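no rush on this but wanted to send it before i forget. what follows is a protein written twice so to speak, once as letters and once as structure tokens for the fold. mainly i need to know what kind of three dimensional shape the backbone takes. thanks a lot i owe you, the record is right below.
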Amino acid sequence: MAPGIPAAMERPHFIGIGGAGMSGIAKILAQRGAKVAGSDAKESPTADALRALGATVHIGHSAAHLADDASCVVVSSAIRADNPELVRAAELSIPVVHRSDALASLMGGLRSLAVAGTHGKTTTTSMLAVALGELGLDPSYAIGGDLAGPGTNAAHGEGDIFVAEADESDRSFQKYDPDVAIVLNVELDHHANYASMDEIHESFEAFAGKIVPGGTLVVSADQSGATELTRRVRETLPALTVVTYGEAETADVRVHKITPRGLTSEVTVVLGGKFLTFTVSVPGRHYALNAVAALAAGIALGIPAHNLASALGKYTGVKRRLQLKGEAAGVQVIDSYAHHPTEMTADLEAMRGAASDARLLVVFQPHLFSRTRELGTEMGRALALADASVVLDIYPAREDPLPGVTSALIIDAATAAGADVTAVHDKAEVPVVVAGMAKPGDLVLTMGAGDVTDLGPRILDHLSS
């Protein structure tokens, strides 16, 4: 039986309750019986889902939204100090709790599994949540995206396992004490918080150091940043059990073969000298390796490998992770959350493998000025994998503009790499532009972590007209 409501979480108020991470915690607390309230910038399906669970959701930010009897105010790193609800919390001496501390408190008393890495966290966490559910283990989970089946990013389960996506962007993943942790990859990102790869490695090493005694770190044997982390951890944390996975010959859970099968993959791994084959219901090597990481982590929790492998085949995807939005006029429109060059390359290669001879058209919206400044050239090179691309202005999210940092950095790099790129500054014009470019048989990918996802249905409407 899962624990109840943590102390100080009986009447929480969430600032930015509609966010992927915040809403998940709010949902679990509401399902456990807490009196949840919060605010968000605009109405959304997430706000409606929270209200359906009994939460009070205000639209807009105002000091009046914060109840005097709130037991705490939950914030993420994106909330600024001058937010009126945060200011009011200080006036009322209401404790302020970071999102990561709130999530850590929900894991208390459960066997926890935390999934970290620069890319692939949401997919891998989702695979585990689905597979464990298929096996009747009824896990609790908190994920950065909505599962395609249940249509939610979080749930309170009655089982004794909690699966959580662990966010490295602001070092908050160091708050968790998991029984099993996965590190999928280690790359330089989140440039506003990390100045170097050494800082990134130190942060992931600190995360590994929080694994409970007797716990396990599952880490990629293929990616250079992850293998460097393994080297460091084996030196500084010799008592920690480390299990490597991947295509490297030295991997403990070795990938023998990945066979594309249209929009699925067949994966064969070697475990203890024996072969195990299972199906992954999403395309591409990147996602197949995520499934192998999930398999290794589940085994570390004591779940039989053959049972888990079969259950992993039930995973059907996460919203915004190569999610088919629809088809019109013979053109399929697919949505991708990819916003880092490695993610972009992985998704474009996956679609290339699944699309055969179809043309691949991309609508890309860069995310964050700091990321574009540091990685704009690599983003442009990634777009060269598409037959044609439309590039929007930078989605600022939590950042203020930086002098000289625009989408032109990406467009210039893409053009230099031989890509066919069109700049579109007004997002409202994109459906018309894309409808004019697309031909029957083409695949259109809307790509980015911002509101580019809104364009899929609009593009389909214009294709149909």
The chain has three domains: 12-98, 108-312, 321-464. The chain has a mean pLDDT of 92. The CA atoms of residues 186 and 353 lie 25 Å apart.
